Here is the input.
Amino acid sequence: MPDDRHGRPTRLDAVARERGVDAPAGDRRGVTSRDDAGPRTARVPEPHVHDTFSVDGIDTKRREELLEAVLLDRDGVSAASATRRNGTVGVHHDPDVSREEFRDALEACGLVVAPGDAAFEVRRAAQFASARVAVAVLFGLMVATPYIAVLYPTRIEWLFYDPVTVQYLQSILDSQMATHFFVNLGSLSGIAFLVACGPIIKRSLAAAAAGEFTNESVFVGSVVALFAYSTLAAFTAFEGAVHYDLVAYAVVGVTLWNHFGVGETTPDTAGVTEPTADGSGTADAPADADEEPVAMTDGGR
Here is the structure.
């Protein structure tokens, strides 16, 4: 369907017109406006349950607010939130309204609903993927900086530095300080590899156990071999260049490619059970309380 970022109607706009609703400009069913100070909240009746859906297609703030208005217009709904950042939709509703009815309503609005109750799995996988990118980039910079400042000038001395500076830097590498220097670089590159490439390492080990040989196995084996070679060169009498920098560059490159290029493997949600109408099977069923619970309706922002 056309994208409303270009000013053209979508299936969500058509559903909103049919129900006679629009994106809220103020309070609606006790829900405060997004422009008010503080998070939006709504009073949720005690018997109401909460369902969360992982969806694809909420790509603008207007679609986010319009979808909330459409859901709030349904009978039995006390609060609704849509978050384009995480691709999730949460609904507090009467137990008599089934989860499948909301799934059908979301699909009727032109959204792609993930199978099963995969919202939290998708969100957690996205958070871990972002954390791996941060670790790879930050640790990669921490490894690259000493190489650029100390090691590279001694290897390509003709490029930037005069002989006196190169001789001074070489004297540092020949001193006992080099041990602490390489311990730091080895630790940073090793941690970056284990954390940022954790899923790749696990898949490679699983493939090896199954007797398979994959591209990821080649990558993991190459990085481990290069790390071992550099460690021998740094801390033993073995003569060779220390290439912790290449380990860091490989980790950063593969992590960024997996995140922004081909993407990480989709989380396995085959074993996730659909929650029942009374909220069993979910981790966020309403807690017992003397008063009506207050629901955060701003998508967790």
About this structure: The longest strand covers residues 49-56. Strands lie at 41-43, 49-56, 77-83, 88-93, 112-113, 294-296.
